[in-house]
Amino acid sequence: MRDVLVDRFGFDSQHIELLMDKPGSPVMRTGVNIKKALNKMVDQAESGDVLYFHISGHGTLIGKKKQDEAIIPLDFNYITNIDIRKIVNRVPEGATITILSDSCHSGGLIDKEKEQIGPSNKPKNQAEGRTIQSSQSCKPKFIPHETVLEHLTSLTNINTSDIGIHMLQLFGNEASLLFCLPQMELDLLKPLKQDEGILLSGCQANEECQDVGGSENENKAYGAFSHAVLTVLKKHSGPLSNKELVLMSRDVLKNDEHIETQHP
């Protein structure tokens, strides 16, 4: 993706920051580091700038009734739809930000953002499910909220199912705004105006994204949606709208028998 940003879209390689999960990486992909990088990008933005944030990783849902979407960083310090909303709201007038999230339940990653492309907009035969062939090379990127809660409980030794208490104990004021701010302040976060923020999500809010293994010679996995987007961009050298990119990527996923149904 970095090469595509530089070679096709003209981004300056010096302006691209990579956060990794590998031990010894200069900047690890923790919750704090991701938010610092995003805030730095927004702080330096000016009118006319194009901002881009790409993440491929695990995602989950928080809560039972009013569910909030969250990215799960390396240290399990959730980055929620509330955090993303707060950051996007700070983008200066005249600048744009595009977020590509290849993570489970990412369809609602910008809080209060209106869905533009969904299964309901597809022809009926595309919206329906299909038989999936199981494959060890294809794995969901979903981590159950209960699994994370169990892990955090082992770290805090606090007997509570309120994940916010664990997050605040472990990360303090560096935890998600979802756990730090009262509901009244969360409700005051304004929805975006048209085109202020663009979310390209790997799936709908109620769906899971897939990780797909590389070839026998590649000891790595990659996000299926990220790979689909790159496939489309390499095949089509001309201009593409966001909608065209999403629908073409959806077709790439649909034609891969190893990928369970997900709708970008």
UniProtKB/TrEMBL annotation:
Superkingdom of origin organism: Eukaryota
Gene Ontology biological process: proteolysis
Molecular function in Gene Ontology: cysteine-type endopeptidase activity
Renumbered residue ranges of the record's region Disordered: 113-136
A cellular-component GO term for this protein: cytoplasm
Gene3D superfamilies xref list: 3.40.50.1460
Signal peptide: none
Peptidase C14 caspase domain: residues covered: 1-256
Family assignment from sequence similarity: Belongs to the peptidase C14B family.
Protein name according to UniProt: Metacaspase 9
Organism of provenance: Nicotiana benthamiana
